[in-house]
Amino acid sequence: MLVHAHPDDESTATGATMARYCAEGAAVSLVTCTSGELGEVVTDDLAHLRDDPEALGAHRREEITDALVEYGPVRHHWLGGAGRWRDSGMVGTEGNSAPGSFAGADRAEVTREMVRILRAERPQVAVTYDEVGGYGHPDHIAAHRALMEALEPAADPGYAPELGEPWRVAKVYWSTLPRSTIEKIEAMGIEGFTAHSVPDEELTAVLDGREFHPAKVAAMRRYRSQVDLDGDDFFAGMVASPEFAVEHYLLVRGERGPGSGPYGWEDDLFAGL
Q1: Which of 142, 25, 145, 4 is CA-nearest to residue 67?
Q2: Which of 1, 131, 160, 245 could cross-link with 123 by S-S, CB 3.0 to 4.6 Å?
């Protein structure tokens, strides 16, 4: 089970992982926490959505439905139901404290809704962002918190028994980037790339999803409101590279499984289970 903040986040960070496990027959589920109402519309023919957050949210809900088809039978959940919490916008903007924003959501209610999904899906492995949300976006941080704060209640038979039988997730990973990748980007003179990274030797798992790179790119093309893969900028070039489908993880809960290479990286999130 993967927990992400907005439509398209799941594809950018974990698309190849989702495609791989769908292909292998694993039960793959996705929790999306907001509809991305405050995303930046990059396509001119969708310019009418730039000043209409509700319409943009509805459009992005359609985009994620189409994108997930590229991966296989992903079971998709909107945390609290579609539209329950709104995109909070980038850090320091008015959306952070707007009514209904996910960043300002009642944490007890968020926990209850996440427990509901955890007990229904009963995943062995769960994935979300690190504690700074990868790059500091308030909704990414809130998504991280939503999963991490629900893990113990989900396993506690005394917590909200009406939500289903208790369930303990065996392994929890945070999606991240290796320090070597950030150093390469910085060496290219790319400015403003503030993603948090982990020293290569501290990573737990590296999934080489280059076999599934076409599926990841196809899914991202469904997000025309958010990404332009036909441009000549750094992001378009990064997505076009098969290396974009190599995804990196840090284990924060559970027992590390067998790995290989100089750092003993797992090549399977289910390693050891």
Answers
A1: 4
A2: 1
Residue with tokens 């926490």: 33
The dihedral built from the CA positions of residue 213, 216, 219 and 224, taken in this order, carries a sign that is negative
d(CA 48, CA 202): 45
Any idea which residue has 């986040």 for tokens? 9
The neighbour count for residue 201, using CB atoms within 10 Å, is: 11
Beta strand residue intervals within the chain, DSSP E? 2-4, 29-32, 75-78, 125-128, 171-176, 205-208, 246-253
Q: Burial letters for 44-82: b for 16+ Cβ neighbours within 10 Å, e otherwise?
A: eeeeebeeebeebbbbbbebbeebbebbbebeebbbbee
Q: What is the pTM of this model?
A: 0.96
147 near 126, Cβ under 8 Å?
yes
Beta strands at 125-128 and 75-78: parallel, antiparallel or unpaired: unpaired
User: Which residues of the chain have a pLDDT value below 70?
Assistant: 190-195
How confident is the model over 39-61, as pLDDT tens digits?
999 999 999 999 999 999 999 99
Question: For position 196, what pLDDT does the model report?
Answer: 73
Residue 123 CA to residue 172 CA, distance in Å, equals 10
CA distance linking residue 21 with residue 72, whole number of Å: 9
Alpha-carbon span 9 to 216, nearest angstrom? 12
User: Any idea how long the chain is?
Assistant: 273
